[in-house]
């Protein structure tokens, strides 16, 4: 492909080659029959409310960082490939527990199986976000090389899924449509790519000016879209101009483990990227339990009232009449909501069950002048749908 000149005439040829390569990569990554997958030997049980993987070249300071953030000792030394397996630690932050994974360094060619690249990448795929640790004093090309390695195995960092609707059909040929003007692909090229995948009946609708690579991602369908923070470590050994430039890049943060610089900002950024939603439960007539939040995530399972109930107990949803919500997601305080209501971080929720006789709660509630009591009254007068 590198040897093919890029012009209108070779466009179709290149597109087809891209699809062929994507197909072969997918085959290559399928775990051999009888094995549990590419992450063999690296299995670490998931723990806590989220999982963060440390990915980087050897000796950039991944283990040093894990030790600083979690207190779990992971061996650090001045030689490369000090770490040979996956070492988990726990970060306690904002009342939640986040599992941080230290991993062996990876190198160019990791996606093709160099070093322990395959296992490392498999573990990073199982996490919620990636911290790509980089050495601020080393080549800036490293970030690009690692991104390519991760992309080669289907990881997409800091990208949104392409806005392309694609559905295979049994008959009817291919229907091709777009709501925007397309500058990277045309109908013929899309047909050829679909052909490469032996797809002859399908619906294809472009909602953005997507590329061939985007289309292939959508057809392959197994891509994982993850947030990634680029962590430039060892800023103690580079000049202030470099630090300033690196710090201004998107999704990036500069730190020094040695000088304990900016670690708190790194944690805050990580927390933000994870998008965790803490919901405090409030038993009727009592103060909310701020010590033990139910933790939801829109990437993992969702943040609706229904998701909240399912986390507490699977059969709970059936018993819920409505819930009372205090906090950022509530239009008024409290708002009575149904199962589809989407909760925000630090909301307080009280569940009102179907069978619960409201008069029963009243007695216990007399001293309570505001809130749930009166809402219950209002709801009785004008029962909610659902
Ligand atoms: N100057 C400087 N050195 C650091 C910093 N953080 C870590 N180091 C040093 O960098 C070297 C490598 O650190 P490790 O934590 O072993 O790096 P790693 O990424 O885990 O390395 P591998 O496990 O071999 O992939 C050690 O000598 C550390 O002391 C830092 O902030 N500044
Ligand atoms: K090392
Ligand atoms: Mg290490």
From TrEMBL:
* Statement: the UniProt record of this protein carries the keyword Hydrolase: yes
Q: SUPFAM superfamilies of this UniProt entry?
A: P-loop containing nucleoside triphosphate hydrolases, TGS-like
Q: What is this protein called?
A: Putative P-loop containing nucleoside triphosphate hydrolases superfamily protein
TGS domain segment(s): 275-353
Q: Which UniProt keywords apply?
A: GTP-binding, Hydrolase, Nucleotide-binding
Going by the entry's taxonomy, the superkingdom of the source organism is recorded as Eukaryota
- According to the UniProt record, where is the region Disordered? 354-386
Provide the OBG-type G domain boundaries.
50-275
Q: Where is composition skewed (Basic and acidic residues) in this entry?
A: 354-363
Q: Which GO terms describe its molecular function?
A: GDP binding; GTP binding; GTPase activity
